[in-house]
Amino acid sequence: MALTLAEQLSFLHYPRPFKNPNYTKNLNRRTKNLKTVLTQERERERAERERRRLEKEEQERKADNAMDVDTTNNANEEKTSASHTAVLDEDIPTYTSIEAPPSLLPPRHYCDITGLEAPYTDPRTGLRYHDKSVYELIKGLSPSVAKDYLAARGVNPVVK
Questions:
Q1: Rounded to an integer, what distance in angstroms lies between the CA atom of residue 112 and that of residue 134?
Q2: Is 128 in contact with 110 (CB distance < 8 Å)?
Q3: How confident is the model over 18-77, as pLDDT tens digits?
Q4: pLDDT in tens, 84-130
Q5: Same domain, 70 and 117
Q6: Which residues share a beta bridge with 110?
Q7: Is residue 3 part of a domain?
Q8: For the chain, how big is the Rg over CA atoms in Å?
Q9: pTM of the model
Q10: CA atoms within a 13 Å half-sphere pointing along the CA-CB vector of 48
Q11: CA gap 86, 137 in Å, rounded
Q12: Three-state SS for 117?
């Protein structure tokens, strides 16, 4: 039996040292969607901030009990302003903690061909285009290519 050149050069039957032969897939592991992951991350960050705040309050209480020398109003005001500043420092917004309402501006449309702003839409294909030269290109596209452009934008392609 003569082996072909492809069979001679094939690495199919050689051992693959980069794979662990003892690996088994965990069937109980479930995938999580993005919203779940972000919610869990936000909750973890909130719990961590709360834990740090409680630790600081406990340390301040211990320090106040250890150094009970002057209890005038000025000292109390300084302590409350310092603790208020510490709380504000912990609430600095991060990438995952910023929440904003939806924009009041209308959404921008971009050209499916060039990626530039698209004030026009082709009525036949539904493709958005930037200017006359791009429209000339769109008129010459086949329906299957137009469907591909629409699918890339995430639109259910219905080409007439």
A1: 10
A2: yes
A3: 777 788 888 887 888 888 888 999 899 999 999 999 999 998 888 888 766 555 555 555
A4: 554 445 566 666 666 777 788 899 999 999 999 999 999 999 999 99
A5: no
A6: 117
A7: no
A8: 32
A9: 0.40
A10: 8
A11: 60
A12: strand
